Predict the structure.
Amino acid sequence: MWYWLASVENGRTASKELEKLSKIMTPDQIAEAEHLVTEWETAPVAQTQLATYTSCEPSVASVSPFSEGAERDMSGTRSSTKKKIGKQEALEMTQQARTPLHKALRLGALAAGLVLGSALVSQAGAWSLEEAAAPYKGTTIRTIGESLPPLEAMDKLKHKFEERTGITVVIEQYEHSEAVNKVMLDLNSRGGRYDFILQPHRELGRFVANGHLTAIEKFMNDPKLRDPGFKPEEVLYQSLWKEISWYEGKAYGFPFTALTMYLWYRQDLLSDPKEQAGFKAKYGYDMQVPATWDQYRDLAEWFTRPEEGFYGTAIQGKRHEALWYEWLNFLYSFGGDMMEVKSGSECGPIIVNSPEAVESLDYYKSLVQYSPSDTLNYFWDDVMVAMQQAKTFEMIMWNDATYAVEDPSQSTVSGKMGFDLVPQGKGGKVGQVEGWTYLIPAYATNQEAAYLFIQWMMAFDQQLEQHQNGGASSRPDVYAHPDVQKITYSKASMDTNAVAIPKPTIPESPEITEILVLELSTALAGKKTSQQALDDAAVAMGKLLGDCAPLKYPVN
């Protein structure tokens, strides 16, 4: 029952209702709601839009999705106006109505024990972050992750949680490999240094197999810790959540970042009439955003001008995880894969040395000639700097690094960039599923306090602020927000997520990565042909995985 929403037909009524609700709201909620109601008075269009829903009383039977046999149902009940609202309409309204009033409504509704978009939940009014955190006041929780904009944004947000709960959050930031290695050392020693960890999802199977993690259901099923308003089964991209944070049908966390890679290019140069005329004269077609790999290579060749210190592209050729990640874009696009499976947690036939895979590596190697001379020493930080310093035309790069290339305080090409899906090959439109996930180690001493922070970070307001400052949210309502829609790379992120292909998360996944990094590096250095390198990789993977992974393309 949306009594407060039903009563709000103008700012004056909202103010009166807010005065009543103030008795059960916190001072911070009152201050924010008063500000939002003031904004509401100047939003007649939004008033009219929301007024159409004021006669609806959606009801939800709320059952934990982590309870065995749990089922949920949503229906609409009629009021005096006989208007009925269904689940889809309610979800759409919840996503679209993120106006100043909507936020004020949500504050009032939560304080009154209501959940806007889900209706009445009997325990909602009894739960508050402050009360849930009270037993852990004075506690310090520690985490670790990759030093990139998403973690930097979380570091800037944490003070709000600390002020409300009295729990101190310490964040350690390291380069990708170092963050992974430090966590592995702590888990293997059962040291308990970290109360929660942020790790790439390829590590998930290994962590689970070794008993290093506490499943998230432990906390989701605890009414003292679980915020009834947080419904991950509704507010997250389900496919991304299950690929990034689940293993063998069980949830172990929530996505810290939903990552993927896509095309970065210099839109200003692509639009330059002089460049366009010269390009067409040489290649016989109009210069355009590359939709195919042939077009990508033509552009790379055209813009390679070493005498000017400018290159068509830059590949991440260093013997590092970055090399494997980058090559996967080419592998998938050319119609290949590492194994013939449907999900990352499955083991299956090895196809990493297929004709499509060999063709993709041959093409990838051909781009070295259009890259800086030291490109075989580059990883993601180096290519990002090359673009920030206006030294390259195009590259395939991460969505969580895109913020830094569009930040004028860090980049000379801010406002000059374009972003799109990677070019298409036989595999069509593709992307890769990748992500860092929140996880709670089995050896952590402050698991409950850690869960409260994770849950708080997954809420809409924190997700929105983190995303706007370089994050990569797994919530579709964040991408639907008008301010996010204005971000130049939002569409590329959403389009790529829609066609993303999962990668292995089985316990042997880290070793698979190491095998391929070694063989790809050897091929780029010219020590092996693409066929030889991938054959050797296939054999090594077969020995590692055993009977569950036969070679589909046997090696003589």
In short: The two ends are 70 Å apart (CA to CA). The CA atoms of residues 314 and 383 lie 6 Å apart. The chain has 27 helices and 16 strands.
